[in-house]
Amino acid sequence: RHKIPSPPQMVARSLALLLCLQSAARVGARVIAAAPPPSPPLAKSPVDVAKTTVGSFATVGGFGFVFTALQESMARSGVSGAARTAVPRFVFQAALANGQRWGRVSAGFAGGRALGQLARGADDS
């Protein structure tokens, strides 16, 4: 069973958590200030544009597929009886459709940016 902490214990835990968060924030701020992120490589050929587009579709589409599959599985977990046998098919169909939609949107943005880099020879961001 869970024992409720006393008020002094709660205050002590809150102060300890606050100190940990403050020290972590200081360390994080130093790391961010010390290392600026490197600029992404520019697309120099149509193959680079295709790689960027396909890579973005696969990455974001994969995340969308997994996210939707988990969400749909939880939403349909209460189904019982004969309909329960159809649940995996419905989950897969929903996850595939949503993953493809997320992937197409991301690929459109990433591929468009890469195509702009190829056309102009510079990045606009």
Instruction: Report the sheet-strand fraction.
Output: under 5%
The pLDDT mean sits at 86
Terminal residue distance: 55 Å
Number of strands: 0
Order of helical and strand elements: HHH
Structural class: mainly alpha
Q: Please give the share of residues in helix.
A: over 70%
Shape annotation: flat
Given the structure, what is the number of helices?
3
Please tell me how large the radius of gyration is.
Answer: 24 Å
Task: Tell me the major beta sheet.
Answer: none
Segments where pLDDT lies below 50 for 5+ residues?
A: none
What does this structure look like?
With 125 residues, the protein is mainly alpha-helical. The chain has three helices and no strands. The chain has helices at 7-34, 46-75, 87-120. Helix 2 (46-75) runs antiparallel to helix 3 (87-120). The relative contact order is 0.13. The model has no long low-confidence stretch (mean pLDDT 86).
Keyphrases for this structure?
3 helices; 125 residues; mainly alpha; flat; 0% strand
